[in-house]
Structures are given as structure tokens and as C-alpha cells.
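Fig. S4 source data, part A: sequence.
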Amino acid sequence: MRESTTKGLFWKWGMAMYRFRWIVLVVGILLMLSFAVFAQKTPGMLKDNGFTPKGSESDTGLIQMHDELGVSRTQLNLVYRGKTV
């Protein structure tokens, strides 16, 4: 490791975080609380496979699979087919 008299980027960053540690802590807590509010809305956005457009062929297939086979609309099934299997 070489000796240097100049202060590097990470040293300056660390000193700034130490100097303003209480502000950093408060900002971090406020960010986590605000993210917690938005995180509560996430399950509603993801239910019923929110990536499938309504009325599309894939949506029709999902409805048919749910009605006939009882498969959940949010379940992912992969089927592999090969010549030797």
C-alpha cells in the first residue's frame, strides 16, 4: 500500500458522513418510513398477474386455466419438453 498525503474520495465521504451523522440518520429513517407507506400499496398492484393486459390471448388463457384447472393467476409454471424426456 502506498503512502499518500492527499485525501481520497472515500476518506472525504467518510468524514462527511461522520460529521453529519445525525442528519444522515434522520434522513435515512424518514426515507424508510416513506418507503413503508408505499410498500403497503404494492400487493394490490401485483395481484391477478398485473403484467397481463386485460382481454389479451394470454389473459383469456389464464382465465381458462383458473376456471378449468384451479390454477392461481399469479402462479408461474414452466414446462420443459425434449426429445429424450
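Fig. S4 source data, part B ends here. The chain has a mean pLDDT of 83.
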